[in-house]
Specification:
Elements lengths: L7 E5 L15 H6 L6 H6 L2 E7 L3 H13 L5 E6 L10 H11 L10 E4 L1
Parallel strand pairs: 1-2, 2-3, 3-4
Length: about 120
């Protein structure tokens, strides 16, 4: 059986196709809210996740909720909050507030340390 066996994953915030629309109806909230079966690589081997440019967008929060809920082996989550302002007048302080939400998520690992940087 092959699976994702990374111990550390780095997620960078960027927009590849800002105006992209899925060719089919897609609800990201509904997708990440389903009872997804976690891959063994997420549950058993993923130890550290670094999120660079964190802004607390709904998609970021949903992926992090999934990783924290499923990642039994996770030891470290580092949220590097974006220093750039958003198009809606969002500020670093706003993003820091969103990062605090992540601290409240259910966690599968008792050994998890979360740093907001």
């Amino acid at each position: 059986m092959s699976y994702w066996a990374a111990e550390t994953s780095t997620i960078k915030h960027f927009f590849l196709f800002q105006d992209y629309g899925a060719p089919y109806p897609f609800n990201p909230h509904g997708f990440w809210s389903k009872d997804l079966t976690a891959e063994e690589g997420v549950t058993g081997t993923l130890k550290a996740v670094n999120v660079k440019g964190f802004t607390g967008m709904m998609s970021e929060l949903q992926v992090l909720r999934y990783l924290l809920h499923s990642g039994r082996a996770m030891e470290e989550l580092n949220l590097y909050v974006s220093g750039e302002g958003g198009g809606n007048g969002d500020t670093r302080e706003f993003y820091m507030g969103r990062a605090q939400q992540v601290l409240q998520f259910n966690k599968a690992s008792r050994n998890l340390n979360i740093a907001v940087l």
